[in-house]
Amino acid sequence: MAWTRKILRVNLTQGTCSSEPLNMAWAAQYLGQRGLASKYLVSEIDPKVDPLSPENKLIYATGPLTGTMASTGGRYSVITKGPLTGVIACSNSGGYFGAELKSAGWDMLIFEGRSPQPVYLHIENEKATLLPADDLWGKTVWDTEGTLKKRHQDSLLRVSSIGRAGENQVLFAAIVNDLHRAAGRSGVGAVMGSKNLKAIAVRGTLGVGNIADPKAFMAAVTAGKKVLAENAVTGQGLPTYGTQVLMNVINEMGASPTRNHRDVQFEGARKISAEAMHEKRATDGRTHLVTNQACFGCTIACGRISRIDETHFSVQTKPEYWGANGGLEYESAWALGNANGVDDLEALQYANLLCNEDGMDPISFGATVGAVMELYELGVLTSEEIGLEAPFGSAAALCSLAEMTARGEGFGKIVGQGSKRLCTRYGRPELSMTVKGQEFPAYDGRALQGMGLAYATSNRGACHLRGYVVSSEVFGIPVKTDPRDTDGKPELLKAFQDATAVVDSSGLCVFTTFAWTLHDIQPQIQAACPGDWSLESLLAMGERIWNLERDFNLAAGITSKDDTLPPRLLTEPCKTGASKGMVAELGKMLPEYYSLRGWTPDGVPTTATRARLGL
């Protein structure tokens, strides 16, 4: 459907739920989901607010294509001020929750204040009720979802919740829906926990409607699905291997950050790759991968469902982890594996299950463990302080630290604050591989120059999905560029960032852009939504969203000094691979990027830029 034109505002302090009309003037400028919810957030909170205070707000938002027949139209986002970074946070999730929320008749949920006791929100179409959650507090995501389905006697109830990580204010706590899909980054789960909000349980039966031109929409959707099916990446690679198809590719070209970015190639990558997930184990004759899985409305089906080896040390006495469950994606496999030098596929899966079960971002968790292991090997941290031996490559340490962090026990409390705070605490802040406090994903900014610039300029801290120039630098999509070259990368990145803001605001998945350009997406938006959604207006909207986020961050205290990379990437060259001897050439690209953005040399949008974009 296009917009339902309704918002549910939940005041947790007062315990009230009220409906209000969607601001359609804003919708015409920001479309939905990431863009529109960000507009609401920046209009309603002080940018300098403490992210974990009642004054911060938490917004669940769908896009106009969420819940429609558009391929991948099942996305929703959670927008807030992030506690890990102190900047605007927008974390995107798939599964079925977003479509259910839309089918219940809501474009957005806005949570404000703090409940005096744990609560959850139950939504049945237009009826919304806050209910006690005292008995759910302390439960995992998995237990919470099961309990709520039984309580409401509805197996089709869709649940989005936090685990113990969110309750304990782990700064990279995630919000998990459908057991293993997550709004994973920037600590949105910690904000939810700070509000004593345990879960949202939704049942929507109102269905899909409000499409401006149904015939044109179905024609555009059908054409789009054909493009996805015929593309080698979205039609073959992702369904077969998932995002894990990247493990060997990125490693072989020397762009895989390894052992806290000391190296750019991991000798154990093959053992934890997509190919390894397809191989039969010697112990039980089963493959690690059980099947692929799709989110609502998705024709790609890149999700992984895996079964852990029951004889593995991590689960030998824990049968609750033996069943088929959410499997490793590329980012989680890298963060739990390469970043720590761990090549034990089953250990990675166990840690990944704990991240799903208790709601933690595996990227930030794994990368923080990488910092712990380097500090341990340097002698800065001791086994007495950590509670165990923690050298690079230790699968046992990885599993134990995952348990400790998820439960908020021992040294896990320190790990749960993220690598920036951890490394600063022990006097080695330069060993934190972060931008604006958020840990890097699975691409090295020295070997992929465009990604280095993408990390430095991302509005939500280090992130690959805000401007995935890997498509160009590795796959040649939409054009092939030399990953080691800085020429043209600022312009390329800006185009990716603006286009991605459009996709994130529509309700579609960014993975479609391996095959689609905005030329494929624009007809779907135009047919679904009344008004002018020309290619030009969409590109201007993407730029408007990026600058809106930048304005908020500047007001929150971010400056151009924060648009940088850790010293390791700027001064320590790649040791191996095609980019051997190279560092991230950020200084060559950043001034040009600011100029292309219409910003001052200090990274501030000019008056002319703000006027042009209607900010």
Automatic annotation (TrEMBL):
Keyword Metal-binding: yes
Pfam family, one: AFOR_C
Cofactor(s) the record lists: [4Fe-4S] cluster; tungstopterin
Keywords: 4Fe-4S, Iron, Iron-sulfur, Metal-binding, Oxidoreductase
Lineage top rank: taxon: Bacteria
Family according to the record: Belongs to the AOR/FOR family.
Lineage of producing organism: Bacteria, Pseudomonadati, Pseudomonadota, Betaproteobacteria, Candidatus Accumulibacter
Protein name: Aldehyde ferredoxin oxidoreductase
SUPFAM superfamilies for the chain: Aldehyde ferredoxin oxidoreductase, C-terminal domains, Aldehyde ferredoxin oxidoreductase, N-terminal domain
